[in-house]
Design brief:
mainly beta; 60 strands; about 0% helix
């Protein structure tokens, strides 16, 4: 309750029920406010004052407050020699609490605080103009900082403290667009340093999804994520990883910032998938998660730690035997044939040794599955867990979508797998016809020529199997230059056809295998292909489902060596058990491909790539051209002209779908057809994303527009690198 004193300073607060109360002043006459009894007060906990006891029908008198003249602080904010208006100044007390309301500098850069009690204060700047904020004393304070690390400002009773000045400099900024959210959704973008420190933030996105970081940043590399209040899974910049609710932001894609410039097109696609898991963050312990182990549960160790992370491991089996240890969740959610799924999770490894973990997303009866295998470096503790993921699609109807984590390595000598932030979502779009194993350690493009071919007799045209070999329970033949094989029964060991190449690779080598697979039987069959060092000390896997009666069709498999290999090997396993003939294999190739960009392990089925559905008038850009209605735009020598000479406003609107890890597309403008500037950069997305670009800077001119892909397509014809553009519309508002 608030009342105003009369001309003599008297006041009365009436109608209070029984209880204890605290009394403080608020004034606009530049006195220092007080909390009863005789406590200087600007902000904080009112209960630090002396309580006043009030009884019904009684007056509690003499609750008097004696105010002292307040001190003041004045100063100026400058950029170079000029005053800077619109800068916020925050003031803090000696406990680091903000006192008074933030004041804003006038156009001259001047500001003032009045009514301050005697003591020491600290001050900092805030701004939305792209200047690097500081604490008083020239201590950087980009976004969040401890105000007590600045220089203290001594305020005396009734005294004026002047010349508390700030000199700011322009920093770099980051801007972009957030798509996939409804109008009015509160979404913000946060920026972090390489040390995972919050250094910048945007206001809530505009109605068109655009944002820009408020303050300026020093030159360097930064990382970004979204935060929202709509319950959508937040995104880490890179378009591959969720950051919901938390993640190690510097594991995303770096964003280069330079002084005085805006780094544009740092875009986020927030379209919500349908979450299928429960307790993916283990906030409720092991609830909703199940365990499986062989020969019994004593061979599985697990716990949920105090920091709510699942740790588990596999106890070594008896000598000469094998075993399993699995943590899984059945969602009891159906998935229709062809639907796309995205699984994301954070993984760590507390062992000093590197370890392999296999992650399966599957129907609970294993009638359909996709698998990714990841090698985790040793000593990845709680602060160094990394984000991983899987993009896949169902190849038949599922009744119970399930995610399973298999401990592929034992917990010897010590340590455990760490799992957190597990999500399994249904995502939109037609079947992508591929499985991507999203690995944060996937190497960047090394560059250089691809090849040579490592295999011999990959087409089986010699009529003999050599130098291929077989192992385990497998029945096979060569018919008309095609290798045909089955696993007729479940007798161990697993059957395989393989070829060691004798080739050694350094760690990080990217390799690509292509092959034709067919199925002449009347039942669908599963094939698992491994690229690995011959001693299995490093391996990756792709599993493919072959429809009954499928003719030979081309598949592609890309991966990388996570350690040095001594004998690169390709192995093909008939994973389906049965006498129905045949699984067919032909035209197998295996090469080093240093020119390829990969996300980890990539398993491409026939027709892999973005779904064919597209907005009307869609186009495709494959690294050399983009076509639209028969017109071909070739980067560097062909474009389309747009006349804006009579316009007072203009914008370019389109729908974009760009696939291919670390690929970028650019929309460029020229006013003379010779010199081009990039006005918008398109990043990778996993669905159609609307883009709208303001062309107001070119109003009054005739300009040329062109679309430029990065052009670094893979060596094989089934590369997923593709930029599809649809719904192109140039909106011109004339005078």
């Amino acid at each position: 309750k608030t009342v105003t004193t009369d001309g003599s300073g008297n006041y009365a607060l009436n109608g209070l029920p029984n209880g204890n109360y605290f009394v403080r002043t608020i004034n606009s006459a530049s006195y220092a406010d007080e909390l009863y009894d005789n406590f200087p007060f600007l902000t904080g906990d009112l209960t630090t004052g002396t309580s006043v006891v009030v009884s019904t029908a009684a007056i509690t008198p003499n609750i008097n407050l004696a105010l002292q003249p307040g001190g003041s602080i004045t100063g100026t904010v400058t950029v170079g020699a000029s005053g800077l208006g619109g800068v916020g100044i925050k003031l803090y007390d000696s406990l680091g609490r903000q006192v008074k309301t933030t004041v804003t500098t006038f156009a001259t850069g001047q500001y003032s605080f009045t009514g301050l009690p005697a003591g020491t204060c600290f001050a900092r700047t805030t701004n939305t103009g792209g200047y690097m904020n500081v604490l008083y004393g020239t201590v950087p304070c980009l976004h969040v900082c401890n105000p007590l690390t600045g220089t203290g400002i001594v305020v005396g009773t009734g005294a004026a403290t002047s010349s508390i000045n700030f000199a700011l400099a322009a920093g770099g900024r980051i801007s972009g667009q957030v798509t996939g959210v409804t109008l009015g959704t509160d979404v913000r973008v946060l920026v972090f340093s390489a040390a995972n420190e919050l250094v910048g933030a945007s206001a809530s996105i505009a109605n068109n999804g655009f944002y820009i970081i408020d303050g300026g940043l020093p030159a360097g590399t930064y990382y970004a994520r979204t935060v929202n209040t709509a319950g959508l899974p937040d995104k880490l910049y890179s378009a591959l990883t969720l950051c919901s609710p938390n993640c190690h932001v510097p594991s995303g894609t770096g964003i280069a910032v330079t002084l005085g410039n805006i780094t544009p097109s740092i875009n986020f696609a927030m379209a919500a998938g349908i979450e299928m898991l429960q307790n993916g963050h283990f906030n409720n312990g092991i609830a909703n998660w199940l365990q499986f182990a062989t020969p019994d549960f004593s061979y599985l160790s697990w716990q949920v730690t105090l920091d709510e992370v699942l740790e588990f491991g596999r106890v070594p089996p008896p000598p000469g035997t094998s075993n399993q240890a699995v943590i899984f969740q059945n969602t009891v959610q159906p998935v229709m044939n062809g639907r796309n799924l995205l699984a994301t999770f954070w993984l760590g490894n507390t062992s000093p040794l590197r370890r392999r973990i296999s992650v399966l997303v599957h129907d609970s009866d294993f009638s359909d599955l996709a698998v990714c295998t990841f090698w985790l470096p040793g000593n990845l503790g709680s602060t160094e867990m990394q984000p991983y993921g899987m993009k896949l699609h169902a190849t038949k109807d599922w009744t119970d979508a399930t995610i399973s984590f298999y401990a592929a390595s034992t917990n010897v000598p010590q340590g455990a797998y760490r799992v957190d932030a597990v999500s399994l979502q249904l995502i939109s779009g037609a079947a992508a016809n591929r499985v991507d194993c999203l690995d944060p350690y996937a190497p960047l493009v090394a560059g250089g020529g691809d090849g040579p071919e490592l295999l011999t007799n990959g087409d089986f045209n010699t009529g003999t199997l050599a130098p291929w070999g077989t192992f385990g329970t497998i029945t096979h033949q060569i018919a008309a230059g095609v290798f045909e094989f089955i696993k007729p029964n479940a007798t161990p060991p697993s059957g395989v056809v393989l070829q060691p190449t004798g080739q050694a690779f350094p760690a990080g080598t990217v390799v690509t295998a292509t092959y034709q697979l067919g199925n002449s039987s009347l039942v669908r069959k599963r094939v698992t292909v491994l690229l690995h060092d011959n001693d299995f000390s490093d391996l990756s896997a792709c599993t493919f489902w072959l429809p009954a009666g499928q003719a030979l069709s081309t598949y592609t498999y890309r991966a990388y060596a996570t350690k040095a290999w001594t004998n690169a090997t390709l192995s093909v396993y008939p994973a389906t058990v049965g006498a129905e003939q045949w699984i067919r294999l032909d035209n197998v190739t295996f090469k080093r491909t240093p020119s390829a960009m990969i996300v980890g392990t990539e398993c491409l089925e026939p027709g892999a790539g973005p779904p064919p559905e597209a907005p009307a008038g869609s186009t495709s850009l494959d690294g050399s051209r983009v076509s639209n209605g028969g017109r071909v735009f070739r980067p560097g020598n062909e474009w389309t002209a747009v006349d804006l000479t009579q316009a007072r406003a203009a914008s370019l609107r389109l729908d974009s779908w760009l696939s291919g890890h670390r690929r970028r597309g650019a929309i460029q403008v020229s006013t003379d057809g010779v010199d081009w500037i990039t006005i918008y950069t398109i990043g990778e997305s996993d669905r159609w994303t609307p883009v709208e670009i303001d062309l107001r800077d070119f109003v009054g001119e005739k300009v040329w527009l062109r679309f430029v892909f990065d052009g670094s397509t893979s060596a094989d014809a089934e590369s997923p690198a593709l930029w599809r553009i649809g719904g192109i519309e140039i909106r011109i508002m004339k005078h």
